Amino acid sequence: MGSQEKVYKNAVEIAKVLCEQKLHYGDIAIDCTMGNGNDTAFLCELVGDSGKVYAFDIQETAIENTRRLLSDYNLLERAELILDGHQNVDKYVTSKVKFVIFNLGYLPKGDHRVVTKTETTLPAIEKCLNLLQKNGVIILVLYPGHESGTEEKKNIVEYVSNLPQKEYSVSHLHFLNQINNPPELVCIEKVKD
Ligand code: SAH
């Protein structure tokens, strides 16, 4: 568990603390943007050997890098790595899940043209809301620092702001005094089935 200092450092670190708080042994989680697999590995550790993590990416290199990372840490058995868009999540995940994370944007050291987009991100969020168990959480890390990320953030914030309060508790954290539009965090908790 991180110290206070770590909690408020940036959106990515806060997301990790929320994962640690929420996920327990035996839980089911989804990583909607696998990338190089760091979040997938983190989730696999938290759910333990009786849990399961579904991870999605549209790039083959993401699957390869994640498979290597998980296998190095002996975590591969807890994960299902899926080469498909997160907008198709309901084709692969049928059980209710405790936790979903989207780390949006592009891979920093990868192809910057492959970036998450509103037209697929929003349907994916909607499908994940339906898969979420009561008290389950969806975390979105938004990257408004680049042009398409600004647009995506605007659309996501508008969409989640309109979710019914009786069913979902929705919060949005952004740093107010930092340059270059750093990552922001949206947290959706299902409060009623
Ligand atoms: N911005 C983050 C990393 C984001 S990685 C950071 O700075 O750490 C985002 C990943 O989402 C990329 O690997 C990309 O291939 C993947 N992606 C893009 N569109 C997707 C989709 N529709 N479904 C699943 N993954 C997608």
Describe the structure.
The chain is an alpha/beta fold. It has one domain: Rossmann fold (3-Layer(aba) Sandwich), CATH 3.40.50. Helices cover about 35% and strands about 25% of the residues. It has seven helices and seven strands, in the order ααβαβαβαβαβαββ. It has helices at about 5, 10-20, 40-45, 60-70, 90, 120-130, 145-160, and strands at about 30, 50-55, 80-85, 95-105, 130-140, 170-175, 185-190. The chain has a seven-stranded mixed β-sheet with strand order 3-2-1-4-5-7-6, with helices on both faces. Helix 6 (about 120-130) links the parallel strand 4 and strand 5. It is globular, with a radius of gyration of 16 Å. The model has no long low-confidence stretch (mean pLDDT about 95). The structure holds S-adenosyl-L-homocysteine (SAH). S-adenosyl-L-homocysteine binds near residues 86 and 108.
Question: What brief labels describe this structure?
Answer:
alpha/beta, Rossmann fold, seven-stranded mixed β-sheet, 193 residues, binds S-adenosyl-L-homocysteine
How would the blueprint of this fold be written?
Elements lengths: L3 H4 L3 H12 L5 E4 L6 H10 L4 E6 L2 H13 L6 E5 L5 H4 L4 E7 L14 H14 E11 L4 H15 L6 E6 L10 E7 L3
Parallel strand pairs: 1-2, 1-4, 2-3, 4-5
Antiparallel strand pairs: 5-7, 6-7
The structure holds S-adenosyl-L-homocysteine.
